[in-house]
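Researcher: Please predict.
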Amino acid sequence: MRIFPLATAAAIGFTLLTTGCSTVDKAQACIEANRVITETASKVAGLVNDPKAMEKALEDGSAKLQDVADKAGNTTLNDALGDLAKRFEDFNVKDANDAVDAAQKVAGDAAKTVETVARECT
């Protein structure tokens, strides 16, 4: 009869442990998402005169966001970060005009995603 209480205690402990991990994972994803979004938007804003470097910054930001999205453990957060990563990836920055347009769009897209992250992470 001692097996049942031990099994129950183990199951409860496992549930608490995995729930805690999920909460920690989500919190970490929220912190990391905000860091990557801010870092990428800042880099892009400073590269309007260097289209090639901007394209690289967008690719790097996209990869980092997708990595965070994959680890988020929250569907809404995952979707928002994945969508922003896709938008970053889709930019085609060939010249200074493209760079200016991309910088403006990145700023707007980043702001919208930060709002979503804030809602999901509170």
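Model: The chain is about 85% helix and 0% strand.
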